[in-house]
Design goal:
Alpha-Beta Plaits, alpha+beta, 2 helices
Length: about 90
C-alpha cells in the first residue's frame, strides 16, 4: 500500500519521530512522509510511534491508498527531497 503520514509531536520527541519515520518512508517536508509500505511494516511503524508519542497532546495522521498511481500529487515551489531511491 502507499501512504502519506504526518505527525505533530512535542519538541522533545521530534528527533525520535524523524529517525523512526525515515527508516520506513521517504521524507517530504518537516513532519510529512510518503511511500510504499506493507501492512506488517505499517503496524511496526505505528507501534513504535505510539511508544514515542504522548497520546494526550501528540497526533499521527495516515492517509492510505492502494498504489501511488491512484494519487495525484502536485508540487508548487521547490521539492524538498526527490524520491529517487538508490539500491
Amino acid at each position: 500500500m502507499y501512504i502519506i503520514a504526518m505527525y505533530d509531536v512535542g519538541e522533545k520527541r521530534v528527533g525520535k519521530m524523524l529517525k523512526l519515520f525515515r527508516r520506513y518512508l521517504n521524507w517530504i517536508q518537516n513532519s510529512v512522509f510518503e511511500g510504499e509500505i506493507t501492512e506488517v511494516k505499517l503496524l511496526e511503524l505505528k507501534h513504535q510511534a505510539f511508544q514515542i508519542m504522548d497520546e494526550e497532546c501528540d497526533s499521527l495522521i495516515i492517509f492510505k491508498t492502494r498504489q501511488e498511481k491512484w494519487l495525484e500529487k502536485e508540487i508548487i515551489g521547490i521539492e524538498r527531497q526527490e524520491l529517487d531511491t538508490f539500491l
